[in-house]
Design goal:
With 256 residues, the chain is an alpha/beta fold. It folds into two domains: 2-88, ATPase, nucleotide binding domain (Nucleotidyltransferase, domain 5), CATH 3.30.420; 103-244, 2-Layer Sandwich (Nucleotidyltransferase, domain 5). The chain contains seven helices and ten strands. The protein has helices spanning 36-48, 67-81, 108-120, 154-164, 184-211, 223-226, 240-250, and strands at residues 2-7, 11-18, 21-29, 59-64, 86-88, 125-130, 133-139, 145-152, 215-220, 235-236. The strands form two sheets. A five-stranded mixed sheet has the order 3-2-1-4-5, sandwiched between helices. α1 packs across α2 and α3 packs across α7 (240-250). It is globular, with a radius of gyration of 19 Å. The chain starts with a strand and ends in a 6-residue tail after the last helix. The model has no long low-confidence stretch (mean pLDDT 92).
Amino acid sequence: MLLTLDLGNTNLTVGVFSGDEIAVRARISTRRDRTSDEWGLMIAQQIERRGVTAADLEGAILASVVPPATNAVREGCVGFLGVDPLLIDSAYDHGVPIAYAHPEELGADRIVNAAGALARFLPPLVIVDFGTATTFDAIDREGRYLGGAIAPGINVSTEALFQRAALLHRVRLKPPERAIGRTTEESLQSGIVLGFAGQVDALVRRMQQELGGAKVIATGGLAELIAPHTETVHEIDQDITLRGLQALYARRGVHR
């Protein structure tokens, strides 16, 4: 079995593959001050609750955009699970041609998403990842990663709004019944859900024009909330990052 780890600013997403099937999916909130023992114990507990033990693991792979926590996660995996994760960065031989001006600036998550998308879909592609930031990644018809866009994430933006606007209170994010909210809560839900959906459509349409058309894949924690209200997203795939990690690990030629 293969342990896949995607360390983001909000969550560590954990996946365990049995062959090509995902046997475990779990999320652990990211805290940069956690020790290696804390990370190792929490990862072990999450997979054991779902019937997987350290003895089942044949390897591990980690993509991280949180450098202060990267080593602690790796050391925790070694200490508690007996596997040292392969670390993915811009220097890794990921097999995706990069046309980005400065590849070393690319976040590991964007490279992994590109690998995961290309493992499932034919290019050209646009990947929209609703994470701490909302990222847009473009892959051309030849399968080259071109670049994309980075926008403030939904939770980051809404939290800033609630902190700065004294008369606005936090609301449960859910799809609005109408664009014209009749209450403050409805108005916020409309502005957040439909507003971010509109942002996605505006950016994606411009990218599609530059690419000459593209299939659009949405992923990330809030994809299920926002993507259905867009006009441009064709498919939601919450496993694209985990499958990208699996595909990158397979390039080592040791994954069974």
